[in-house]
Structure formats: C-alpha cells, structure tokens
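The aim of this short unit is practical: by the end, you should be able to scan a pair of folded records and say something sensible about each. We start with the first protein, listed as its amino acid sequence and then its structure tokens.
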Amino acid sequence: MTENWIAPSILSADFARLGEEVDNVLAAGADVVHFDVMDNHFVPNLTIGPLVCSALRKHGVTAPIDVHLMIEPVDRIIPDFIEAGASYITFHPEGSVHIDRTLQMIRDAGCKAGLVFNPGTPLHHLDHVMDRLDMILLMSVNPGFGGQSFIPSALDKLREVRKKIDASGHDIRLEIDGGVKIDNIREIKAAGADTFVAGSAIFGKGDYKAIIDEMRSEMAKA
C-alpha cells in the first residue's frame, strides 16, 4: 500500500520567507515540497527556476522536492534541476518532442520521472512509457495560476489512471494538482490519488498543522 503524501505547492507561500515557510510546512506534517515552474510561454505565468530549488537544498531542506515543469521545451532545463537537487521531475507531453528520451534522461541522472496531463490532454501518451514512470500527475485545473477550483471530470481520469497503474505492476505514484482542499480530498483519494498537491488550501491559512491533520483525517475516511 502506497503511503499518502501531502505536497504543499510553494507557489502559494510567502516568497520573502521561503526557506522558513518550507521548514514550517514540513514540520507541520507535509511530506513533499511541490515546485511549480512556469515559463510564460507554455502557461501564462512566470515563476521560479533551478536557483530557487538549489537555495532550498542549501537552506537545509531534505524532503523530496517534486518539480513540475510547465515549460516548453523541457530538455534544456532538466539537467539544471537535477543538479539543483530535484527528487522528482514531471513534465507535460506537449513540452517534449521525444517523451521516452526525456523520461530516460531524467532517470539516467538518478532522478525520478513523471508525466503531467492537463484536463484536456488524452492519456494515450502513457501507452508505451509506463516502465519509465515514477509518477503520473493529473491537473485538476488548467495550469498557470494557483487558487483555481477543482474540475470534477478529473475524478474519472484519476480512476482510469489508477486502473492503468495497477494493471502495469509498476510502482508509480498518482498525483493530483489543482483545487485540492479539505472538503474534497476524501473523494479525490477514493478515486485513486496517493499524492496531493495543495497550495492556497495550506499556505496563508495560519495553522499549517491543523490543516494537514484535517486533510489526513478526511483521507482516512476514503
């Protein structure tokens, strides 16, 4: 049974105090640091790059850093994130001309690799690369901005991907990102997710531990 991970998205953190924010959310019970990279090209926003990832490692963050590349093309920047200390690197199939090669490049460097699917992206890209994947990330909002509402059709997509993972026999995490909150995390878990990205639902809400504890108690009911 895969352990359930809560992965706060630092996109919603206070960037002036980023190291402290990450320390606090991990101390409150989070498992993974979710790192949203946007290029103002593939998505309509510009966020952070490898230097910030490296700075968190130098600050002393030892938890897994889960880097989600919402950029195009991806191959040029991947080595920089590996050097900066990324644990997982996920990218969108639209961001790579050769998906299999990009996945292999990540794994050859000792990093875990994954694919990301937008709400409207079909899942056929999974058909020939399941043996190359450590994570599949489903977007339950259209990427580019934090604080959006969960798109309900993501639940059906989760169930479909959960079946694919179980049938493959491979150890692949199933991550969900977008609009995850205390009041919907139970049904998201029931649909098959085991890794939960939450940004605005955690950061900026004061008591991180209380929120994470409540999320875990909701998941336990699924």
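Turning to the second protein, read its sequence before its tokens, just as you did above.
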Amino acid sequence: MQWSYCVVAFIDVLGFSSFVEADACSVEPTQLINLKGLLAGVTSDSPELDVRAFSDSITISAPLESAAVVSLFNATLDLQRRFVSGGVLVRGGIAFGKHYSDETIIYSEALIRAYQLERDKARFPRILVADDLLDWYFHHHDTKPADMDEVKAIVIADRDSLVFVDYLDISSIESHLQVINKYNIKNSTPSVLEKIQWLCQYHNFVAERCGSPHVYTGAMLSGFQQVVIKP
C-alpha cells in the first residue's frame, strides 16, 4: 500500500447544479458533453498525473517531487484556462500531505487540506496554493532554478496575500472578456455578483499588465449609482 506524500489539487466546478438541471430538462446533455470535452483535454495533455472527476469536483494528484509539482501546477493552469474559455468557472486549492488512492478509494490528508483551502479561503474563481507547499518547493534541493522561474510565472499573490494560479494571459484575455460579458448583473445573486466582480478586477489587472485593449468596463465595476425614480 503506497501511503506517501503527494501534492493534490481540489477543484470545485462552480454552477454545477445548474448544469445538471439544464441537462435534465433537455434531450441531449449538452453541459455534460461540454464538461467531458474540457476535462479530456487536460487528461490527454497530462497523462503522468492522476486526474479524476466526481460530481462537481475534480482532483489532480502527483507524488511530492519537484518535477511532478511543476507538472501539476501546469495542469491546473491548463484546466482553468480550458474551463473558463468554455464558459465554466472553477475554484480550488492545492496542498500536500499523506495520500493513498486506488481504483476504489481516495484516502488523503493532501486532498482534505486542498479541499479546506478551497472551502475556507478561495471564495472567488481562483485556485489557491498552500503557503507550505510553495515553501517546500522553493527550498527543496531537487528544484532547479529554471523550474523555480516557471512556477513563479504561474502563481501570483492576491490583495489578501493569498497565492493563486495566474491563469490569464494575453492569448486568452479576449475570450475571457467574452465570458465575463455574458453575465447579467440584474440576474446575479449576491454570491455570483461578488465572484464576477473579482473576476472583472483580475481581468483588468492582467489586461493592464499585458497592455491589452480588452478591458472590462461594464456594470459589474461601475460602482454606486444615484437612484432614478421614473415618472
């Protein structure tokens, strides 16, 4: 039995119940087909990683080794880019700890820690990285300088000092803006509105960093407005 240290990403698919409800009312499960296609792209590009999906959750696991950690970070980055471009927002956490899995069971301290990071701190459509995982990675003797630079380019610190996967870049920013523009502020719950507002702010930060003209300027960030009473 291989009960050893691993790194695990736990990813929550936001809006999953609405996808299921929509498919339940249609002949063809279009949302399911979309999700399967998005996930298939991740698994085919990262065959060395253990990628699993159940209900609204996705897990990616790898041995706690420097090279494997880089692979997992890249797979997580790829997954979020694919899903957002497909109109699906995700939130998650990446952590390490003792881990065991086989065909029938996942028994994992790493998964619990990643899940708790997602549940308690992620809040927005971001995939957080545990501080002690980054500390282990950057101070491990097997971590090469080039790999350090690669991971530094993948993660970024948010305004609350939490580190998350910086998935947006110049190649995807235009399609990212199209996804944001699909959200209707009047039909959004307070929880959804908060998430999309954060997404708009992150989008504009990256747009400014890249010098992109694809900046969000819609109602999600327009701020307070005077109440107008129509006659």
